[in-house]
Amino acid sequence: MDILVVTSPPAGEPLRLPVPAGELAVRGMVELSGETKAGTYYPKVKVPKDLDGFRAQMLAFSNAGRRDPDSRKTHRTATVTDLSLNEVITKGGAKEKVFRENDTPPYFSDQKSDPALDKMAQFQAEYNASREAPASPDLHNGPARFTFEGRTASMLGLGERSAFFGAPSNVVEGAAGPTGVGSLPLGWMTTDTHFRPFFNVDGSYPIVGYGAAQSAKGNWYYIFVPRRDTELPPKKLDEVKLPVEVFVGAPAPEDATLVVEPANPPGPTTSGPVVTPAPTEAPAAPPATAPPGGAAICDGKDLSGACAPITEGVADVRTVGIANDTVSSIRVPEGKWLNLHRDFGFGGPCLSFSSDQADLSGSYMSGRVSAVTIGDSIPQGCIDGNALRLCSEGDFTGACITPTEDSANLGTTELGNDQLTSLVVPTGKVVSLYKDFDFRGECQSFSADRAHLSGTRIGDNSASSFTISDSVPADCPES
Amino acid sequence: MTRIDIPALKTAGPRAGLALLLGGLILLTGCSAPDNQAGGVNTPGGGGSVASAASTIDVITQVEGRLGEMGIGADPGSLICDGELAVAVDASVGCEFTADQQPVGLVVSVAKVDGGEATLKVETEARPMPQVILENRVRTRVEREMGSSVEFAACTGDLAAEVGASAGCTLTAAGTTRELEVKVDSIDGGLIGVSIGDAA
């Protein structure tokens, strides 16, 4: 027998029930949309005066939905109503994995906001508002050219916007508008297409950025950009869609005039060539050499040229005065690891160093560093850039071994025979690869990292034995 | 327009004294300052006037730090000039800086001289893309599209800063080679817009 107990508040007192978090968030968005300011990237559009607060409400709404195991069912969506399943059938009939983080509700942890993702989302929202974009796939297209804070780039694609703002590369984007206030993120969460990042379908999405902007006609535009934690497989060279655009150099200035006071001491005469005297005050630029102590990256060898101290993660080296892809030497304090990332936003291959590197030219990271982190150990996703590493896949991935001595038969290692595709060579060392066991057959030496052995004389998936030494053996040249 | 505050003229410290002394020297020696430089200089802070200032403008000191506010992203410390800029209308000086390593020309000319202030006109000029920069840009751009490394990138030479100019590039990654054509689509001041496509 079931016993049903019904209670009521004391007579005269109103019934008080907690307002659902999602509803509270919508109320917050409506309230915060009442006060606006000029956009950051397109000043003619409006954005909530408390933009961070508005984003926080969007995030609160989506996290409330993530916590609710019946969120999809409650909104009577056509697909994916049971998130307790390991696989769900999505629109079109495909089976897709649900990346649950807990076995019982709430299945997913709260998403966290990411400043760089917020920026790229806000940019696109403002761009869409600036052109009163109609609702269409075109909402995902950015401008072919955009200049901001002295930098010009194509912002057409998501990858380009991600690179510009130093955001992670493995992101997706949801766009909405023209619409009203408070209709998003619900609109995305209840579709049969855009719901995946909110419920970890096809991957985990731990961080997200939100953007919101109002057009001159009063329409609202929204963007969300979550980062997919499950890496997408890299494309092959012949799979890259071309053409793509690149902008190099610097545009004509928007306002070409500048008022100055010629206050520097005059030279002896104004006729004839004038030697520029040393400036009386240092220009606003990084020091010419590495500052004393602490970690630093420099664009010249031996810690010369433009240098920047590194005290925390730098998602875009340009923000600390170092041109992209120019880091040539680094200083690493004792007990620390400096991690060099190939892509902005800490993306791409990452090599870590626990000691100074006066010349990175032998490293894969030479001419490639876009972001830097520092810590007490090698972070996940990075590898020791100064330890021998032999891997079965390109970019130092796949099955990897970190041997400390020569091997006459790679078939006895976890790497296997004829499996070597990429290798990290320690600074000052030479790795000689042999096509046959027992250091026989064709041989090629490497004094620098190789992210892929295709195109080399020894070739990909061909090494059977190797030696490591201090110099190039006479019978095993580099080329 | 924005104005630069010159601390030497705004404070009564030793540097102000030096500026006054040097300005005085110009007048005393009859140095070749333009006529319109003679007389007082109004300080930005409204602190009255002092004797005439300089006959030249050190562009590196005065302009480099302000390129950013003009929408020009220069690599720090990269600006070099042929010399100083004479404080005379229509005087100009040629300079060059790099933006993410790409050379960019900068022509700074004097549009107006008014009392102690000079109004400068700043123009950027496109420069050819050196082969090494071109190879690096093509490689990194395609790497971003791929999500993995390009092992080899070689282009046929520098890319001229003219619309329609082109260069061939060969990329190799994981055993696959692709022949590309890099073509200049647009020039805007010192900004070159290029498209990277497949070679015909």
Explain what you see:
- The complex is a heterodimer of chains A (479) and B (200).
- Chain A has 479 residues and is of the alpha+beta class.
- Chain A is built from 6 helices and 25 strands.
- In chain A, strands 5-9-10-8 form a 4-stranded mixed beta sheet. A 4-stranded mixed beta sheet of chain A has the order 18-16-17-19, with no helix packed on it.
- The longest helix of chain A has 17 residues, at 51-67.
- The radius of gyration of chain A is 28 Å and the shape is globular.
- Mean pLDDT of chain A is 85; it is low at 264-288.
- Chain B has 200 residues and is of the alpha+beta class.
- The relative contact order of chain B is 0.10.
- In chain B, strand 11 (176-188) and strand 12 form a beta hairpin.
- Chain B has 2 domains: 7-126, no CATH class; 131-198.
- The N and C termini of chain B lie far apart (48 Å).
- The chains are: A alpha+beta (479), B alpha+beta (200).
- Chains A and B meet through strand 11 and strand 12 of A and helix 2, strand 3, helix 3, strand 6 and strand 7 of B.
Backbone shape of chain A: globular
The strand line-up of the biggest sheet of chain A is 5-9-10-8
Average pLDDT confidence of chain A is 85
Radius of gyration of chain B: 23 Å
Brief overview:
The complex is a heterodimer of chains A (479) and B (200). Chain A is 13% helix and 24% strand.
Keywords:
heterodimer, A: 479 residues, alpha+beta, Pathogenesis-related Protein p14a, Gamma-B Crystallin, domain 1, 3 domains, four-stranded mixed β-sheet, 6 helices, 25 strands, 13% helix, 24% strand, globular, B: 200 residues, 2 domains, four-stranded antiparallel β-sheet, 12 strands, elongated, disordered N terminus
